[in-house]
Amino acid sequence: MTQMLPPLEAIVMGGSSGAIDALDAILSVLPRTLGLPVALALHILPGKPSGLAGLFGGRCALPVKEAEDKEPLVSGTVYLASPNYHLLIERQHHFSLSVDDPVHFSRPSIDVLFESAADAYGPGLTGVLLSGANEDGARGLERIHAAGGVTVVQAPDTASAPQMPDAALRLFRADHVLPPGKIGLLLARLALERAGSPTPSQKDRG
What we know:
Elements: E1 10-15, H1 19-27, E2 38-42, H2 52-57, E3 64-66, E4 78-80, E5 86-89, E6 95-98, H3 110-121, E7 125-129, H4 138-146, E8 150-154, H5 163-171, E9 176-178, H6 180-193
Parallel strand pairs: 1-2, 1-7, 2-4, 3-4, 7-8, 8-9
Antiparallel strand pairs: 5-6
């Protein structure tokens, strides 16, 4: 029997070393009509403005900004975790910032964002794990998988630091394992296919 999927509600992405180049390739192909909020957690140095909102904003059709505490997620906007704060998504679909201890030596932690988003959106979530030099994000992506969401991993052979994608793929079978350029196209397609009425599942690894 064909599995029917609910509408897609949000996208979360995370990465570390090498992820900025991957995100540049992904965000540059997302259409202005994406119609979903996108939240990003990247390992960045604390105590300094990241400058990433300006960097990505100049190459993305969607507005890009740092997420603020208690701010509701708005469709068609890309949100960045602020340096030295964990970024969480509450069940009411607004952001929460935390200064709890680092996870995998990182704050913001990808696991923290992914796990909270999985609890908030369940099968309406897509998670993307990109290049990075530790295992942060692997458990969080597994949580998204367990909640019925779509899971996407950057193909390790395209990552400058493959440890993070490899860690996820050791835990479970991701729905899609792709290079960055194809990840952006996949996200645009999923948003279109699952914008309203559920559509049949299309799982693959290529």
